[in-house]
Amino acid sequence: MIVTKCLRWSCSLTAIVFALSAAAAFAQDESVSEIRYKDDYDQLQKIVKISEPAKRAEQMLSFYRGRSDIDPKLSEYADNIFAKDLEILNKQGSYTAMKGLSERAIKLRPKFGEAYFFYALALKFDKKTNEAMNAFAKCYLIPSTFQKKAKEQLDIIYRSVSGGSLVGEDKIIKNAQKELK
User: Fold this and answer.
1) Minimal CA–CA distance to 176: which of 147, 113, 120, 134?
2) Model's pTM, two decimal places?
3) Which residue has the higher pLDDT, 27 or 140?
4) CA-CA distance, 106 to 180, in Å (whole number)?
5) Domains, the chain, ordered by start
6) pLDDT, tens digit, for every residue of 71-92?
């Protein structure tokens, strides 16, 4: 009887210790996440203060390179900053810079729709029609703010090379889909 009570007491004590350890570990993980979020946010704020779009985009690429596990909210914020910089470069006619930055962003983050869009615009400017159509198709397949514009651009280019028809465009989209997997 005494052994049974001691055994119950021991099991109860073990359960309490385990529960407290788990709670402490969870609290520690949560504080590490909060610290990482704050550090990432602070770093993004430093990048935002850079006035030149190409330099800011370069810094954003460095940020992406060092942060594969960024919080989704901060990732969306960073993506918007990067896309706005590419849009500015596009309006300035800085296609070479836009192409290089987009291409590097795609290598770091292969499902970055906005980067595909601006990469495709630069390819279109360079008259690399097939590559541009492929990049527009990839942007169209990835959820992003430029999905609809990518499809419109894809349609325009495809019609220009196929005598005004969209017959066969689906092959380009299917091929792009395979490449994205």
Assistant:
1) 134
2) 0.81
3) 140
4) 11
5) 50-180 (1.25.40.10)
6) 999 999 999 999 999 999 999 9
